[in-house]
Amino acid sequence: MSLSMRTWMCLSKNLRVCYSGRHFSQRQVLESRRTHTESYTTTGYSFDFTKEQQKLKENAKSFAREEILPLAAKYDRAGRYPREILDEAWHRGLTNHHIPKKYGGAGLGTVEECMVAVELGYACSGFTVAVEANSLGSVPLLIGGDEQLKKKYLTMLTEEPTRCAYAVTEPSAGSDVAAIRTRAVKKGDEYILNGSKMWITSAGEADWYFVLARTDCSDVNGDGGKLAANKTLSGFIVEREWPGVTVGRKELNMGQRVSDTRGVTFDDVRIPASNLIGQEGQGFKLAMAAFDQTRPAVAANAIGLAERCLDESVKYVLDGRCELNEHAISNYISNMATGIEGSKAVMYRSAWMIDNGQRNTYYASIAKCMAAEMANKCAADAVELFGLNGLNADYPVEKLMRDAKIFQIYEGTSQIQRIIISRELLNNARQ
Ligand SMILES: Cc1cc2nc3c(=O)[nH]c(=O)nc-3n(C[C@H](O)[C@H](O)[C@H](O)COP(=O)(O)OP(=O)(O)OC[C@H]3O[C@@H](n4cnc5c(N)ncnc54)[C@H](O)[C@@H]3O)c2cc1C
C-alpha cells in the first residue's frame, strides 16, 4: 500500500467523513474503504497508476512538454487556435478517450482523461480546453442518443481529427440554464431552430454542436417559463454547415486565448427529428449530467496549470533569482504543494466514482471548485514570488495567472459549484 493510501486510511479512521453528502459511522466508512480497495484491484484505480495508465501519462507528458509548451506563449499572444497541434494530439491517441471502442474511441475512463488533462494543462490550459470541448460536446449524445445517432456523430470524431461543441449558454442564460430562449419547433419530421448561443468553445472549429433548445413553449408568456426546464428543454445535434447556422467572431479572452470561443446564431435551421437526443424534454438532464463526467477533467486541467506554477516557482528560486527570504519562499511553495495534492485526491476520486458507476455530482463539484480556486491562488502566488518579473510576458507565470481565472467561470462558476455542494449535502442530510 502506498504512503498516501495509508494516510487516507488514517484520516478516515479518525474523522467522520462525508461520503456523497451523507455522514457515515466509522464502521460504514471502513466498509466503504474496503469496497474501494476491492475496486482498486479490479479497476486499476489506486494511488499508483497501472502500467497502461503510466504509459498514457508518459505519452501525454512528452507530447505536452515537447509539442505544446514551447509554442504556448507564441500562440497565446496571437490568439491562434492550435489546429495542427490538436490534430497531432489526435494522431497520438491523446483525445476522445471517453468514446467507446465501437465508435472508434479509446474506450477509456474519466481517470485516464484526467491523467492526460493534468499533463496537457501543465503545458497550456487553453490547448487542453480545446481538447476537452470534444468531451463536453459529445457526452450528452453518449448518455442519451440512440445507436444510429451515436454511430454517425461519435464516429466523425474518431475517424478524423474533427471537433464538436456544447452549445448551451445564451446572452441571458449562463448559470441559469433554465432561462434558455432558443426554440426548436416541430414541423413534420423536422424541428425549426431559432436563437443565439454565446461563449461556445470550439464553435468555429466544430463540425457539429450539442444544442439545448426549448421545445415546449406552452406557458402564458410563451417562453416556456423557467420552472419546467427539466421538461421543456431538449438536446439536438446540429451541424455547423447547415443553412441558417452563423458563427460569430473569435472572442479575445483574458486567458486561454488559443481556445476558440464564439457566439452562434440559428436562423430557421432545419433539424431532422432524428437528431433529437433521446426524448423531448430530456435535454436539461442530459446537459447537466454531462458535467459529472467533464468537471473532473476541468479540475485536472486546473491542477496541471497549478503544477506548472509550482515548478516555475521552484526553478526561479533554485536559479537564485527570487529575492524573498527563506520563510516567505517556503510559505509560497508549500501552500502551492498542499493545494495541488489536496485537489488531486478529490479530482481522481470524483473521476474514479463515475468510472465505477457511482453518482459523483458532489465530488465532481468539489473537485472543480477546489481546483479552480487553488489554481488561481497558485498562479497569483507564483506572480508574487517572481516579483515584478511575474507581471511581465517574458516570464511564464503572467500567462498562467490570466489562464487560471476562467476555471472559476466555465462549466459552472465557483459559486454555482458551492450551491451544488451544499444542495447535495442538505438533500442527503434530510433523507
Ligand atoms: C472561455 C469560456 C468558454 C466557455 N465555453 C462554453 C461552452 O463551450 N458551452 C457553453 O454552453 N458555455 C460556455 N461558456 C459559458 C459559461 O459556462 C458561462 O459563462 C457560465 O456558466 C457563467 O454564466 P454567465 O457568464 O452568464 O454568468 P452569470 O450566470 O450571469 O453569473 C455572473 C456571476 O454571478 C454569479 N451567480 C450567478 N448565479 C448565482 C447564484 N444563484 N448564486 C450565487 N452567485 C451566482 C456567478 O457565479 C458569476 O460570478 C464559456 C465561458 C467562457 C468564459
TrEMBL record:
SUPFAM superfamilies: Acyl-CoA dehydrogenase C-terminal domain-like (SSF47203), Acyl-CoA dehydrogenase NM domain-like (SSF56645)
InterPro entries tied to this protein: Acyl-CoA_dehydrogenase (IPR050741), Acyl-CoA_DH_CS (IPR006089), Acyl-CoA_Oxase/DH_mid-dom (IPR006091), Acyl-CoA_Oxase/DH_mid-dom_sf (IPR046373), AcylCo_DH-like_C (IPR036250), AcylCo_DH/oxidase_C (IPR009075), AcylCoA_DH/ox_N (IPR013786), AcylCoA_DH/ox_N_sf (IPR037069)
Swiss-Prot/TrEMBL cofactor(s): FAD
Keywords assigned: FAD, Flavoprotein, Oxidoreductase
Keyword Transport in record: no
Acyl-CoA dehydrogenase/oxidase C-terminal domain segment(s): 281-425
GO cellular component: cytoplasm
GO MF annotation list: acyl-CoA dehydrogenase activity; flavin adenine dinucleotide binding
Residue intervals of the Acyl-CoA oxidase/dehydrogenase middle domain: 165-269
Keyword Flavoprotein attributed: yes
Domain Acyl-CoA dehydrogenase/oxidase N-terminal: 50-158
Family: Belongs to the acyl-CoA dehydrogenase family.
Protein name: Medium-chain specific acyl-CoA dehydrogenase, mitochondrial
Provenance organism: Owenia fusiformis (Polychaete worm)
